Amino acid sequence: MPGLQLSGLASGFDWKTFTDSVMEMERAPARRYEAEQAKNDNKKSQLSSLGTKMASLQTAMTALASSSLGAGRKVVNESSSAVVQASVSSSTPVGTYEVQVTQLATASRLTGSTITDPSSIPNGTLKIKGTTNSSVKYTEINITSGMSVSDIVAKINASEAGITAICDLAGTQIVLTNQITGAGNDIEVTDESGGALKAILGLGEPPTYAKDTELTINGLEFTSADTTLNSVDHGIAGLTLKADATMLSKVDPAMASPETLTVSADASGMRSKIDTFVSSFNAVADFIESSTSYTTTAGKSTAGPLADNREIQTWLNQLRSTAFGSPAYGAIKNLSTLGLNFSSSNSRITISNSTKLDAALTDHASDVAKFFNNTATGSQGLATAFVTKLDAYIGTDGTAGQLSTKLETYTKANASLDKQIANLDRYLVQRRSQLEAGFMAMETAQSKMTQMQTQLTNAFGQKK
C-alpha cells in the first residue's frame, strides 16, 4: 500500500520526523570526528606555513654558513681626480696600494710623406706587418696602376694586416696605425716592387715605435702592452688596474702623483645576509608564539591552533639557545658584539645598534664570518649550528625531518577518522531502514484495525 509510506497517514504519528531526530542524535559521534578532522587539517596548514618560514630561515642561515662569507672585497680610489680605475675580487689582499702611472701604452704609427703625383702609382705589392698574428706575419697588398690613394686605404683596411689606414681628403698622404699597443708591436712595410711603390706612397720613413704602459705599485715597477694590468702583469691576485688615457693626456705623466687605492672587505654583502637572517628568524618566532599561545578576551581563553604541540615551542627555545650559546671567534664574542639582541618581551631578535654592526663588519669581517660559519669540531659557528638544527626540523629541502613526521601523524589520524565516520554512516543507513520498516508495519497494522472497526460499526451499528 503505497499510501502507507506517508508518515502518520494511518496512525497520526509523524514517525519520519522522529526518525530524523533519532538519526541526528545517533550521528553525534561522526560530528565530533569531523570537528576533530577540521582541527587536524588546520594544524597541518599551520605546520606547512611554519615549514615555509623555517625553510626561508634555513636558506638565510645557509648563506651565512657559506665559506665565501666575508670574502667580498671593494676598492676605493682615494684621489680626488682619479686616473686609475680599479676592480678587485674576493682573492685580493686587503690593504693600501699606491699606484703611479708614468707612461701609457701606445700603438706604432707610420705617417707617410706627401705624395707628389697620386696618378703615377704603378703596379706592385706591399707587404705590411701590423698586429702580431701567429699564422700570418706579413700581409700582401696588391696594388694596380690607376688605383687612387683612397682605394689603397680601403684595401689595407679590408685585409688581415691589423692596420688602420686613413688618408687626407686630397688623397696625397697616408697614415697607418697598428691596431694593438705595446712595445715590439711595430709596423713594418716592405716593397716587393723594388722600392718604387713604397717611395711614391711616401712610406719610406721608419714608424714611431709602440710603447708599454708603465706604472709603479707601492714602489715596484710593472708594464703592460695595453692600458689594463691584471694579476698576470703585476702578480696581485684579483686586482685589475686600468689607466685612463683621457685624464693622463692633460698632464705630464711623469709628474702625476701616486693614487691611493684602498681594498677592504665588502661589508654590504654580509650586512644584507645578516638582515635577512634577522627578519627570517623573527618570522619563525612570531608564527610559533602566535600559533602556540593562549589569548583571553572578555574572560574567555582561546588556544592557538598548535597550543597543544609543545614540541613546536621547544624548537623555538632550541634555536634561541643555539643563538645565545654560539662560541666567540676573535673580536666577535656573541650576537651582542654585533649590535644584535633578543627582545625582552618576545622571542624576536632586534638590531639594537646598527652602527656597531657596520663597524664590526668593516673592522673584523673575517671574525664575523667565522662566528657564523666556523666548522671546527666543538666550535660550530652560529649559522652552521642553525643549519644543523633546521635540517633536523624540516630536512634539507624543507619537506622532511620532524615536521614531516608531524604532518604524517595528522594525515593518518584523519584517515582513521574517515573510516570511523564511514562505518557509522553505514550503520545509520541500516538503522534508518530498520526504523522506517517498523513504523511502516505499524501504519499497515493501524490501517487494518481501522478498516475492521469500520466494518464492525457498519455491521452492528444499524440494529435497534
Write a structural description.
With 464 residues, the chain is an alpha+beta fold. It folds into three domains: 32-69 and 268-405, no CATH class; 73-105 and 212-265, no CATH class; 107-200, Sandwich (Immunoglobulin-like), CATH 2.60.40.4390. The chain is 44% helix and 19% strand. The chain contains twelve helices and 18 strands. The chain has helices spanning 15-26, 28-64, 149-158, 196-200, 231-234, 245-248, 267-292, 310-324, 354-363, 365-373, 382-394, 401-460; strands spanning 73-77, 84-87, 95-103, 107-111, 124-129, 139-143, 163-167, 174-181, 188-191, 213-217, 220-224, 228-229, 240-243, 259-265, 294-297, 300-303, 340-342, 349-351. It has a five-stranded antiparallel sheet with strand order 1-14-3-10-11, covered by helices on one side. Strands 2-13-12 form a three-stranded antiparallel sheet. It has a three-stranded antiparallel sheet with strand order 4-8-7. Strand 7 (163-167) and strand 8 form a beta hairpin. Helix 8 packs antiparallel against helix 11 (382-394). The longest helix has 60 residues, at 401-460. It is elongated and about 160 Å long. The model has no long low-confidence stretch (mean pLDDT 88).
